[in-house]
Design goal:
mainly beta; Glucose Oxidase, domain 1; nine-stranded mixed β-sheet; two-stranded antiparallel ribbon; 2 helices; 25% strand
Length: 219
């Protein structure tokens, strides 16, 4: 049996993904009621207008998010984003917020979507989500680059420690051309290995980050 596992949060009007960034505005450009008279009787359409920053919901960072000359979303190859073998690493938040290089020591991360399951998604849409969240260390990021990871994801507020201004994990991973998927959810539904991971954003030119419908296929 093939199973599809959704790894993305819903995006609702007014929700806050990251403090300091505007919440999405979702409204009708054309409503079903408003389209009356534009088409034959009994036929209506709705077209929504969306106003939101790329860092909304579950999203993917391309190198352009960090580097002015980095690859944007349109430049990413589908092979970097879809049908990747997933490696899920348990990193429970109760064990501490910093996820260090020992979490990947001895693991084959080459060509894989390496997904860190901290369980922090349980705080989504609460004040607790933004503070003292799990993150990777620079050493962990360097180990992932050395091991040849294809993509790195986490079910936390940020893959970096946001208690300071430095962002070494974004710098290291995106500098190596490795996309990052943040604000994931439902990683508990995946096995440690054996799933195929997908997180493809729209093909925007000149955009570094945008929401994705991240999911995995098992079987």
């Amino acid at each position: 049996m093939t199973r599809f596992i959704d790894l993305s949060h819903n995006i609702d009007a007014g929700m806050v993904t990251y403090r300091g960034l505007p919440a999405p505005i979702i409204c009708d450009f054309l409503s079903h009621a408003g389209s009356d008279g534009l088409y034959e009787a009994g036929t209506s359409f709705a077209i929504q207008r969306l106003d939101m920053v790329g860092n909304t919901g579950t999203y993917l960072d391309s190198p352009f998010h960090r580097y002015p000359d980095g690859t944007d979303l349109a430049g990413l190859a589908l092979a970097q984003l879809a049908d990747l073998p997933a490696l899920v690493i348990a990193a429970p938040s109760a064990a501490g917020v910093a996820i260090d290089a020992d979490a990947v020591a001895g693991l084959d991360v080459g060509g894989r979507a390496v997904l860190f399951h901290s369980g922090w998604d349980r705080h989504w849409r609460t004040d607790a989500y933004f503070n003292d969240h799990p993150f990777l260390t620079a050493a962990a990021a360097a180990a992932l680059v050395t091991g040849g990871a294809a993509l790195v994801g986490i079910d936390s507020h940020n893959i970096d420690d946001t208690r300071g201004d430095a962002r070494p994990v974004h710098t290291i991973l995106l500098g190596a051309g490795i996309p990052i998927c943040e604000h994931m959810t439902n990683l508990a539904a995946l096995p440690a290995a054996g799933a195929r991971f997908h997180a493809v954003p729209p093909k925007f030119v000149g955009v570094g980050t945008f929401a994705v419908r991240a999911f995995a296929i098992i079987g």
